Amino acid sequence: MSEHARTGPTTSVAPDGATNTATHAHPDVETPPETTFPRLLATRAATTPHRLALQEKRYGIWQPLTWQEYHQRVRDFAHGLAALGVTAGDVVAVVGDNRPEWLIAEIAAQSIGAAVVGVYPTSIGDEVVHILGLAEVRVAIAEDQEQVDKLIELEQQLPQLRWAVYYDPHGLERYTEPWLREFTTVEQDGREWERDHPGWLDQQIAAGDPGDIAVICTTSGTTSRPKLGTLSHRNLLAMAANLTAVDPITDRHRYVSFLPLAWIGEQMLAVACGLSTGLPLSFPEAAATQRADLREIGPDVMFSPPRIWESMLSEVQVRIDEAGWLKRAVFAWGYRVGERTAELRVSGRRPGPLGRLTHRLADWVALRPVRDQLGLARIRRCYTGGAPLGPDVFRFFHAIGVNLKQIYGQTEICGIAVVHRDDDVRFSTVGVPIPGTDVAIDDSGEILLRSASVFHGYHRNDEATRAAVDPQGWLHTGDAGYLDDSGHLVVIDRASDVLQASDGTRFSSAFIENKIKFSPFVEEAVTVGSPDRSGITAIITIDPTTVGSWAEHEHLSYTTYTDLAQRSEVYHLIAEEVYRANTDLSASIQIRRFVLLHKQFDPDDDEVTRTRKVRRSVIAERYSGVIEALEAGADTARVTSTVTYQDGTNVKREIDLQVFDMSSYELPAGYKRRPIWTGRR
């Protein structure tokens, strides 16, 4: 495909020959440089050697690393990997939280022609074996004792693994396994290896081809074990060039890297956009200090899945609900002003002189303090993706002055193909294609994508690759959607999950679930049943933070999550939210009954993926009794809960969950819908 795309809605022919409407990006698409990440790093080190590249907070102090120091450590570790036997074409694994060592290991491996596969730090057992085994990993980089212990426990299941290199030595001083090496020791060995092989690494970097595989990212794995998508330097740098053509990033901007580098979203911004623009990265000290560190840095750019934005909104709700009446009244006024201004801004309009003056005052007294508490005081633009974000949440952030935009993409196209523009944000769409990207909708309603960022294929899975990318270069996303009259893409759901009721209503489980999840009191929802049989029913998990805050204001005492979830008052609270969701749904697909689960869905139980996507098959099997009770119209559903104590002993408990029937539910007298920013009426 030509890098110079046409402009405006045009007609495109899909692979099956059917005519489809497609949107092509604007024509000002610059061809990305034919280079590699290691060569980009060398250029940064040569042109801006003393500028900040990376910084990590340790013991409360930011530890900086300049581009020159970053480059030198990459060279040392690359030589060290060579000494361990890593060669071009190998795959090196990295498992752990975001640290400078992760990126040093990644670029070092790429310097000698190897690729890197990331493993989520929360991955356990079979997940780790699957990824390392499929990628035939011989050298794994582990963060700390916890990750090293995983590898030791799985040693017999990973016969190909030769070395494990750790970069946090705490607790590992007495480990005697001969295949364990400390990160700094490998760097030291690398310096010695370089003395015996002068000029070798420079030859390897020069020989690197932009088409070489740079990164292997796992797919979400909602229906099966995750596949490994192979992405080249050219794929990732084309994406970075096209994204920054829409939303420029410079080396003066700031970015806090706290989402797993195993995720394509973090590789997209932190690595690809970071190296191509010189964007300095900051790594929080720990998960517990993440929000404080974010506020201290004040990033200009940010990318997070919906759960992060929803968590931030929950934090605001709790703070405002705890504030006095005067602060609540001031914020309520400021929010109304911000909301009116945002409605104009996202449609490309501007308020008049009086509106601008009023908004400036509202921002000063009400909105900016909230942005500052969230660490978003300096934000220029931020993105959300991976799942739909509720329109109310979207409006909230725009109302307080946060330029939040939806993106759409997949691992197979480097994470992004479609994004909102600054002056054209529509809360029900995911935006328009970035430059260099074609979008088409085939006769079945499936979304097709084509660009220079489409991946090379699935590692050691040719059959799945052929099913994903056709000979014309179109990526078959498996998602259903359509292009609206303005060229914005609307995503419905996975094409295989789009169903049709007997009255002709087309729907998907995710569409209904998202309506429920737009409530700040709902963490997760899974719909079951059929509109043509027992009706749509739902299994819901509550958000413990927002519901807990609400319970406190309602003077409801509780002990555990299970206790809170089964309070009748909480059932009626969620019933109000389900009623609101039902008003947006046609009668045939409204939710008839629901149950509040006694626990949150847990990735360690395989109920959700590491990126918090529901595994429907696991839910259907594990909670089959609950589903049967919902479909039968029973008053209660019995589940067996296993409690594990600190000494390792297990106790099984039988719990009866209340089934709430919406058929006779009516809103309380005097009901008034609460504003999005508070849990109070």
UniProtKB/TrEMBL annotation:
Residues 42-459 form the AMP-dependent synthetase/ligase domain. This is Acyl-CoA synthetase. It comes from the Bacteria. Keywords: Fatty acid metabolism, Ligase, Lipid metabolism. The keyword Ligase applies. Residues 1-36 are annotated as: Disordered. Residues 8-23 have a biased composition (Polar residues). It holds the Pfam family AMP-binding. It comes from Lipingzhangella rawalii. Belongs to the ATP-dependent AMP-binding enzyme family.
